[in-house]
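Supplementary Methods. Inverse-folding protocol.

Structures were first reduced to a discrete structure-token string of length 83. This string, shown here, constituted the complete conditioning input.
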């Protein structure tokens, strides 16, 4: 439970910083700054939660699978959102 609390606090901090930076930086720049921060926080949490071995090949394999699932979701839902 402590990890979930940590993630909530981190995501709230990132969201607050992002919303505060919109007027000065613009939407796209704020998203590009936020993305690596969120990915690092979430990636660390998932690796600990799923007990992925410390070997680089195991973590890279998990990353590739996650990326492929993301692409499938993106291209699977894209037609339903297009006009």
């Amino acid at each position: 439970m402590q990890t979930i609390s940590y993630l909530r606090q981190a995501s709230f901090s990132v969201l607050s910083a992002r919303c505060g930076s919109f007027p000065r930086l613009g939407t796209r720049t704020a998203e590009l700054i936020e993305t690596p921060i969120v990915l690092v926080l979430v990636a660390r949490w998932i690796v600990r939660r799923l007990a992925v071995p410390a070997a680089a090949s195991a973590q890279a394999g998990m990353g590739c699978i996650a990326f492929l699932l993301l692409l499938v979701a993106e291209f699977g839902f894209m037609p339903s959102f297009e006009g």
